[in-house]
Amino acid sequence: MTPEDALEIAREGGLDLVEVAATSRPPVCRIMDYGKFKYEQKKKNAKQKSHSATLKEVKLRPGTDQHDLNFKLNNARKFLMEGDKVKVTVMFRGREMVHTYRGREQLNAVLEQLGPIAKLESSPRMEGRFMSMILVADREAVAEAKRLAEASGGDVAEGSDQAEDASNAPAAEEAKKVEAVSEAEEVSASDGGGEASEAAVTE
């Protein structure tokens, strides 16, 4: 079929004549709705790019020191920022099974430090010699952390740290107020109240 004939058939059907194999001899063309084809291709590519959440695991020991804990927490934070679930596991060996409370303390410390961007999906529980919990990302907090990272030109981990600082700011402000009131009460008790107390509260 000549290109002219194919083009005529496409026009009659309200379709397009699209070249699909330009390198073959002769070139291969197809009659199709090109707009619909482009839409389906875009939809297919978007589906392929979408990130499917996977379960990542971070392993600890009851005696893991703060340096190693921070390193593992950074990895867990990156996993959460990428939309993955994180299973945090404390492994017990030998007589460590007598002190399982230390493992729970480790998990509580992890949850406290990852709290601003993480939610608890599965509470800590024992499975043989392992105590585990599962964390999932807080989508709103992660989105805010990414926005802060882009605004500051830093990486995602820095953005999550900034989000954590922002979430902790009200608590820090409240602590300052409580401290100021305590100082005022001390001054009032020593000086008999009056202007000294008011000045302490104002400062």
Task: Give the secondary structure arrangement, pairings included.
Elements lengths: L2 H10 L3 E6 L6 E5 L1 H16 L5 E6 L5 H16 L3 E7 L8 H15 L3 E10 L2 E8 L1 H14 L3 H36 L3 H8 L1
Parallel strand pairs: 3-4
Antiparallel strand pairs: 1-2, 4-6, 5-6
Annotation, overall tally of beta strands: 6
Name the poorly predicted regions. 156-203
Taking the sheet with the most strands, its summary is: 4 strands, mixed
Order of helices and strands: HEEHEHEHEEHHH
Work out the count of structural domains. Answer: 3
Specify the oligomeric state: single chain
- Counting helices, strands and paired strands, the structural category is alpha+beta
Mean pLDDT: 74
Any key phrases for this structure?
203 residues, alpha+beta, Ubiquitin-like (UB roll), Translation Initiation Factor IF3, 3 domains, two-stranded antiparallel sheet, 7 helices, elongated
Structural summary, described in words:
- This protein has 203 residues and is of the alpha+beta class.
- The protein folds into 3 domains: 47 residues, Roll (Ubiquitin-like (UB roll)); 83 residues, Translation Initiation Factor IF3 (2-Layer Sandwich), CATH 3.30.110.10; 55 residues.
- A 4-stranded mixed β-sheet has the order 3-4-6-5. Strands 1-2 form a two-stranded antiparallel ribbon.
- A hairpin with a 6-residue loop joins strand 1 and strand 2.
- Helix 5 crosses helix 6.
- The C terminus is likely disordered.
